[in-house]
Design a protein that fits this description.
By secondary structure, the protein is an all-alpha fold. The protein has one domain. Helix 3 runs antiparallel to helix 6 and helix 6 runs antiparallel to helix 8. The two termini are 24 Å apart.
């Protein structure tokens, strides 16, 4: 009982509406400041007050990449925030994060785009094209995903779920996992910033390269944590419901998260294909799940 009490107190401090709004203000303030700093560096580079040879510090559009990094951090917090409320919305937030990562990458790609007649031969131009098309496809898939969640929201609850106390325990488990994830997120974000700062001080060029590939430092590790969380949710869901279609849905979401994680290990077109496949797989799993439910078997969250 004491453990549950401590978790409840920690949950209220870390994941309450008040904390969410405070976190939003702090992170968005940092994002605005970082954007201004990046623009100042570009201006100083133009005026030759400082010399930064990277195109990343020559094109003002590329500066949007920096505040987007902090906006993504807030999206990760929102993912944790929605975990105890709904598994499907929690998964949807994963898809939003990977979509924002692709969109952020577009702003970086713009700095390296070369307007030539050989557009489809230049690797940077091709990557910009891949990312632009991928972001559009992902946006459409996410719309379909949330539409299918809304269709389920008005279903009547019937069927053979186990006792309500099991459902309450499952919600408590999700709250506990979310509470644990918040400090992990803070530690991982702090570690990433310190590591990047240390590398940049020692070797400026290496630091810039690492910042442009920050996904491999932060999000790669964070999605490793999400896979563990997803598997735990899948296993504990057996105590809450023994329905076949619910188990398949949760298993499919685990596979979808794994595909997103694997995408961080790939480059170019393969990276984009893995991301689209991950979201498409999750959407199809949800659609089939809803069809199964519509045929007379019910679902409860």
């Amino acid at each position: 009982m004491k453990g549950e009490k401590y978790i409840a107190v920690a949950f209220e401090k870390l994941l309450s509406n008040k904390t969410k709004h405070a976190t939003e203000r702090i992170i968005l303030s940092i994002a605005i400041i970082s954007y201004i700093v990046h623009l100042i560096l570009i201006f100083l580079n133009w005026q030759e007050v400082i010399y930064l040879e990277e195109k990343f510090f020559k094109n003002p559009i590329a500066a949007i990449y920096t505040p987007f990094s902090f906006v993504l951090l807030y999206e990760v917090y929102l993912l944790i925030y929605f975990l105890p409320k709904s598994i499907t919305i929690y998964i949807g937030k994963q898809y939003e994060i990977i979509t924002l990562i692709v969109i952020r990458r577009i702003f970086k790609d713009i700095a390296y785009v070369e307007l030539t007649s050989e557009w489809f031969k230049d690797q940077n131009d091709l990557q910009f094209t891949y990312d632009a098309i991928t972001s559009l496809i992902l946006f459409l898939l996410i719309i379909f995903f949330y539409n299918n969640i809304k269709k389920r929201a008005y279903k009547s609850i019937q069927g053979t779920d186990k006792k309500g106390s099991n459902k309450k325990r499952f919600v408590s488990l999700k709250r506990a996992l979310a509470t644990i994830l918040v400090p992990i997120l803070m530690i991982l974000a702090t570690y990433t910033i310190i590591q990047w700062g240390t590398v940049t001080i020692q070797d400026y060029h290496k630091g810039i390269l690492q910042f442009k590939k920050i996904n491999n430092v932060f999000f790669d590790e964070f999605f490793n944590m999400l896979i563990i969380v997803d598997v735990l949710l899948l296993l504990f869901s057996f105590f809450y419901s023994d329905k076949f279609y619910k188990i398949i849905r949760n298993s499919g979401f685990v596979i979808s998260t794994i595909l997103i994680k694997i995408s961080f290990l790939a480059d170019g077109l393969l990276n984009n294909a893995l991301i689209i496949s991950a979201v498409l797989f999750g959407l199809l799993i949800l659609i089939v799940h809803n069809l199964y439910e519509k045929n007379g078997v019910t679902n409860s969250e």
